[in-house]
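Notes from the 1:1 (GR / supervisor)

We went over the backlog. Supervisor wanted to see one worked example end to end before approving the batch request, so GR pasted a single chain during the call. The sequence is below; no edits were made to it. Supervisor asked that the structure be written out right there so they could see what the output format looks like.
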Amino acid sequence: MQCRYDRSGHQEKRIAKIPLLQKIKISDNMAEYPNSFVHPNAKLGKNVTVLPFSYIAENVEIGDNCVIGPHATILDYVTMGSNCKVHSGAVVGGVPQDLKFQGEVTHVKIGNNVTIRECATVNRGTAASGKSLTTVGNNTLIMAYAHIAHDCNVGNNCIIVSFTGLAGETDVDDWAIIGGSSMAHQFTKIGMHAMIGGGTLIGQDIPPYAMAAGAHPVAFEGINIVGLKRRGFTSEQIGRIKDIYDMLYNSHLNTTQACKKIEAELPESEEKRIILDFIAKSSRGIIRPVKRSRA
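Structure output shown during the call:
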């Protein structure tokens, strides 16, 4: 609506002209999902629910039985598996917050059975990383207001709790849980079955099966025994993991020396190989226990 004043100073109201409805082209997608914008070239699977006021861009593929909640936004170059739920205010496929990004085509890939809660964000990758892809695995829960930055790789069955931020190129392996309001430094790696306490500042790599917490610095707090039992690990498996970490952290050796000792003296096992391979590939170094003073 526009306003103007006549010569006597009285306000006149003028109604903006609205194009006739019959002149507006309605795509099949928009007709099928009223009150939302679904680009006609977007590819949606069977039984997809798109609730009002959501936005789905052109270069998007969404699998069967997904639910896109009200005011959710799925931007270009996103591929989403089946049975996913994207809640109100979430943005998937946003341009990466990386000054090296030059507008190139990069992607987000979301697995099956993924839930993205309110106002969470998942950004596209960057070419400068050599990956150009941000991934979230199957059966993962991303809680409200969490942020997954460019080129992150979040595995299967993970839980990213509310207000957690993962900086660019953070890797989170399968079954890891990151507590609320935690922040991960770029390039950090979090091992499988790790459990990280809320409010943790993750500046070094968290090895598999470990519990970690703290800020200055983040520290090893033991083995995630409860989580491992819930996932069917046997007493023998948990015992092997405990032996490895006892030797790693309690032998008064540095990490390199302790790994050599573990390799030479402890029996071969899947758990041993996973832990040693993770440490060998760590670029930021793994966390250490914190020595607490006795009262």
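Supervisor's comment: The helical segments are 28-32, 225-230, 235-250, 255-265, 270-280.
Batch request approved.
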